[in-house]
What we know:
The complex is a heterodimer of chains A (about 450) and B (about 425).
Chain A: H1 5-10, H2 13-22, E1 44-47, H3 51-62, E2 67-68, E3 77-83, H4 94-103, E4 107-118, H5 126-145, E5 151-157, H6 166-176, E6 187-190, E7 212-216, H7 221-232, E8 236-241, H8 246-255, E9 259-262, H9 270-281, E10 287-290, H10 305-327, E11 337-341, H11 344-348, H12 354-369, H13 371-375, E12 380-386, H14 399-407, H15 417-428, E13 439-442
Parallel strand pairs in A: 1-2, 1-3, 3-4, 4-5, 5-6, 7-8, 7-10, 8-9, 10-11, 11-12, 12-13
Chain B: E1 10-16, E2 20-21, H1 31-46, E3 55-59, H2 70-76, E4 86-88, H3 95-108, E5 114-121, H4 132-143, H5 147-154, H6 178-188, H7 193-213, H8 238-241, E6 246-248, E7 258-259, E8 267-276, H9 278-283, E9 290-299, H10 312-324, E10 331-336, H11 341-352, H12 354-359, H13 381-384, H14 391-403, E11 410-417, E12 421-429
Parallel strand pairs in B: 3-4, 3-5, 10-11
Antiparallel strand pairs in B: 1-8, 1-9, 2-8, 5-8, 6-7, 9-12, 11-12
Helix pairs in contact in B: 1-2, 3-14, 4-5, 6-11
Amino acid sequence: MARDTYTELVNTPLGRRISGALGLPQPSRLRRHRPGAPVIDGPVALVGRSTVADRIGEVLLGWGLDVRRHPDPGERIAAVVACFDDVAAPGDLSAPVMELSGLLRQVGPSGRVITVSRRPGATSDPAARAARQGVEGLTRSLAHEMRRGATANGIQLAEDLDADAPGVAGALRFLLSGRSAYVSGQFLTVDTVNGELPRRAEGWDRPLAGQVAVVTGAARGIGAAITEVLRRDGAEIIAVDVPAAGEQLAATANRVRGTALQLDVTVQDAGERLVAHAAQHHGRLDIVVHNAGITRDKLLANMTPDRWDSVIAVNIESQLRINRALLASELFDHGPRIVSLASTSGIAGNRGQSNYAASKAGVMGMVSASQDLLGSRHGTINAVAPGFIETEMTAKIPPITRQVARRLSSLNQGGLPVDVAETIAFLASPSAGGTSGLTLRVCGQNLVGA
Amino acid sequence: MAQANARDAVIVGGNRIPFAKAHTAYTDVSNQDMFTSALNGLVARFGLQEQRLGAVAGGAVQKHSKNFNLMRESVLGSPLDPHTPAYDVQMACATGMEAIGSLADKIRMGRIDSAVGGGVDTISDAPIVVTDGLRSILMEANRAKTTGARLKALAKIRPGHLAPQAPGVAEPRTGLSMGDHMAITAHAWGITRGEQDELAAASHQNLAAAYDRGFFDDLITPFRGVQRDTIMRPDTTAEKLARLKPVFGRDLGDEATMTAANSTALTDGASTVLLGSEEWADEHDLPKLANFVDYELAAVDFVDGAEGLLMAPAYAAARMLARNGLTFEDFEHFEIHEAFASTVLAQMRAWEDADFCRNKLGLDRPLGRIDPARLNVNGSSLAAGHPFAATGGRVVASLAKMLHGRPGKLGFISVCAAGGQGITAIVEGR
């Protein structure tokens, strides 16, 4: 993995003084999840008068957090949850926004702002949709303004969804916690009452206990990090990679006490073989993470059929075929979860990556089109789109480009494989049962990177 | 079959590293490194981390004296529970088979519930020994009580003492290399150059086809960037092999038939096989590919030339088949270790020969012909290579996979060994 020496330097006393004096970016060490640690350390300010706001206040109190309607001026606060779910016209934004504005200087390092609103597309009333969409612009801009590792994200609820839905608490907890360290300027949608919250407080640290998860492309990099986080969260791991990567795959499987399956995901019966392995060795299958992917970069003018076809075959066709086999299996029938790796290249495009971007945009299309298929068995399917993540792959980017890519994000740094893995683990967890068909970016609000 | 009241010894699966031609990819790797890697891959495939197994047994033919506890040290370097006992076995090229066979017996008798058997060998890191003269001087210096006495002993060292002695492949009692021994047997049985080259070419083609089918996807874990056996030549043909000059039995002149291609090359590699009782396999959600039914050891008196050095499996087969009430017609697959192409052909010729079967094996009629279409169908040692002690594990795991899903179908194994020894075994699909 590439080392971000600049971030390390800036986080020394001298480095902080110099970079501050020169007006250079000042990336902070991000707060990341540690099992047993509190969801967030410090008071949480609650903005908004709706019933959703009241309910969210109860949820936060239930987690033992110090919830304030009116924090003392000057007091350090860890997070602000601002509820805009009752706005009916743009003029309604003003009061809660100004209340939020007054709190921002009190938000501490790695703090959080979370806006809560209704989905814009769920209303056809022009003024209401304008107000709701206004919350999106507000949240994204605020994310750019946050400092010292703090982030701003939104939760968007379906039109009539009750705030008691488990997915609301699940999304809230994820966004407050260190699990979402590198997620900023994003919206988590909660559409259904599906999902389940841990019955005991300790359950939040092992939400996947007893479940079995397949991770493809698990030999190294982000895939290996995903196996470790899913294992930490309680899942049994089936680590999959091509036979050629078998030695590192075995090391991954042994590290997480799972099983290794040497399998090329592009073979016709890959899905059936996954299911057979899960049935034989684990007796169940709950989560599939489609992480295997390749890049074969070329400008489109220089594109060759093998470069185009191999990227499409590995990055999207294999997922479609495996999903068909999974959905035909009785083993994958009990609230199953699929999480696919998309990419910010698939959202914004990237020079030299037409094949890769096509495949990753394809993943997002597949995910949104598959939510009903999964929903019929109380499952979900979502995608995660990483931005610039410090991996062996991004370590090969030329140094200057790499530095620029890091500083372009709102957090002034690249993400870590564990950040991607945390988001995947959340989407695979029972508390995210209300979210499906979504592509969530883990990019520090940056659109550069593979 | 051999013990009607014993329980089944189930072959769960196997793992090996790709075999590499000696002095190439694994030059700087030790036996312990290779076996530990094979073990790591096995543990990963079957999720055996932190599990205590009944025993791990295996060995190496070419072994440093510091590796006296090779299996135990490998276990300690693996993710297995360190409470797993392990011991070394050594029976020349039949080391792996003897390790697996005796572990299967322990499982059948209820002494243990699970085991890993296998073997490893390296020619690239062979134990080099000093001359006997130098060794006695060093021992004398070691025993000396004063510095003066120590220096006096060491002063006896002469340049001639310093020539290292690599372990030989020559038979200690005849001074002949294994290949030259085999050349005598092949000549006696009239094994032709053409049939040897055909068998060798088929071995390469079969092994390559098995790779292409993905047959080895759950039998091999890459090691040090090597993904396939490096000796394999997928595009070789009998015609190409016919151009090579003989290297063994050259005193036979024009009648010499054994070349570098129809003899196994020196090889580095390691293999493992996971065995267990039926209950143990079920409790751990593990597949049951086949049963290890029975095995038989034999040895021949080759020293005075009464029998060929590598013909012991011919005798083992006769006793093993009689004990189990079987004939060759009862078997679906035959795995006859290709020490040399002529080894396989001479054994098969002997089993078809009425005189041999009557006079040497004491049988009323020949054991019969083995259909070449059932022989080494996924390649054997000529193509995969032959890291001596690792061959048994390679054969057992592959054969068990071939018989999986075909309950009751039988597979036959023959592995010859130095010192005029050999092992045969029966595996039954399930």
